[in-house]
Design brief:
17 helices; 4 domains; Substrate Binding Domain Of Dnak, Chain:A, Domain 2
Amino acid sequence: MTRAELADAINEHVWQTTGIRRDLDAHAIARYERGVVRWPNADYRRAMNDILGASDAELGFVASRRRQPDEGQPDGTLAVNLFSPFGPSADPTAMVTFSDAESSRPARVGSSEINAIRAATQTAAETENLHGGGSSAIVIASRELTKFAPWVHSSVSAKLRRSLFEAVGNLSSVVGYTAFDAGEFLNADRCFQFALWCADSAGSWDLRASALADMARRSAFVGDPDSALSLIELAQVRSDRLAFTVRAMLSAMRAQYFAALGRSGEVVGEVARADELFAARTPDSDPPWMCFYDTAEHLGSTGKALALAAEALDSIDVAAPRLRYAIDMHGSDYLRSRTFSEIRLAALTMKLGDPREAAALGCEAVEHSRTLRSARIATELRGLAAVASTHRRITDVGELRAMIAATAPRRRAK
């Protein structure tokens, strides 16, 4: 249920129970969520009690003669709305839903429905990680989002409202990332925007940060590291609200964009900060969408940042050990992540190390890529071929370039 829908329902409830016409709007609901108004009038409270199935205390309402605009919820969940890019009546659900999905949504969502969304998200993420976004993953994931996105308009108790929006937002992020990996950037953008809206509606700082991080990855991939850096630094607003794992991921990405912008002197310090944050994490308390960011992922992410800066730092060893560890530690469920690290280590070794060793690493990456349908992997392989052109007269390197040309051919201009 959106803010506008809740406001309409409250107005109708007051009319039906008191005979008084009210004009409560989405802006007022936003003020309740932020804690600016801590004790609405009795008619409004009664309506929300009935509509949301929650008591005044569960809704965060506190009787007081003084307004307390700076008093937030103990966990800070509602304050995120202050940084929302959306108007209080915004509803981008239509961007990610099609066909007759709206008509099939349940009237009320409970724990079992939320668990169904989470299960669908896990299946979509596992398929995408193992086979790439261009596989059947994009079809499966898009179908699930079309089904579940309208559920945010269903009735839900105050206790479960955040869980519902986080679950749908997480699913939208997975679908967006699947589209991004398949090279469907417009679809990815719509899904990331919807995930951000869900985070705002849920008051979820961690989901907000993750959605902005996905947007940053997309910006960096298309050659705009400056915008990517801005998005990451926006995600770091009030980082004290974020899980340490999320903060570590954001710092690792910030280091990557420093490197891409030529700010090599800042990369090592930011990687060290990411390492400190990662060491302080407590995985059991992480949000479910951060399960992918384990030691292997952290080493691969920070290794990528250091690899980008390695030439300026004139040292292959600042990055190579991290990438090797990432390759060794990535499990079979994360084949694409392992392949990325293999390509990056091969490119780094081709630039600063033994080109024959680099060719062997690259050939292994090509072999792993054969089971992946990933536009991003194909792009990185072509980048490796370009780096290898300096040593193309070496037989092993020439064979690598031929393998890449056959596996990830350049698209012909139409």
